[in-house]
Design goal:
alpha+beta, nine-stranded antiparallel sheet, four-stranded mixed sheet
Amino acid sequence: MRRVTGAFVVLAALCAVSGAEAQTFKSFRDKIFGKPVEDGRSSQAVPKVAHFVSEDGESFVFDSSQSIPLLRFDGDDEVFALTATAGTRGDIIYKNDMGQPVLKATRWGGMVLFSDGRPMGDPVAVKGKADTFQPARMTPEQLWLHLAKCAYRASRSVEHKVLFNADADTPGDSTIALFADAATVASDALIQAAEQSDSRRALDGLHEVRFIEGRPPGARFDNGTLVLKLDPSRGTWGGHVSSKRIVKVLSASFSLAVGH
């Protein structure tokens, strides 16, 4: 705000800009950035749950109304749980569970998306309001059927049978959505891993994906079993690791086996 205003004052002195022209400039600036408020942020209110699109055309929904910020790219099933951290100059950096920056909210109200293709960031614009993410509603019987379907998808991708199992004592009614979403993410992760050479070899020894409760959410590969720890206290989407984390665990297990 000060930098923009200061530049304008210098320009006005050099070019003898009239008061009417100055007002036009301020009006244009306010139209683009919103009227300034006391802490220097834009007054244009971005919806707590909004649909965004980047300059490259990548679109997503970002939900900052929850205790854990959530993001889902259009066309994907996975909802990423993010962690908000303080950046420079009052920015807020949202990171995934691997510590990678995914989104940045600037103090002026702008948003920047980070991706493998645009590691320096890609500006995004608000397309409009969006609905909050709703967890799946299932009966215990429907959950077991869902686990079987996810196991079938994963088995086809890795080209051998992989079982999806949950602890006998879990899940309860309040955690069904968490187990269901974790199974979907695990299935997607195995499909992604099958397409990558470093993690594909690790899948040859995978025979089971087991879901257990515990804190914090985690993933480990142990004797042919991918163990995924779920934390119900962190909700449906924050209570399990991401597909990126699962693929990384599989890749690391193969690298460790090769090293030995």
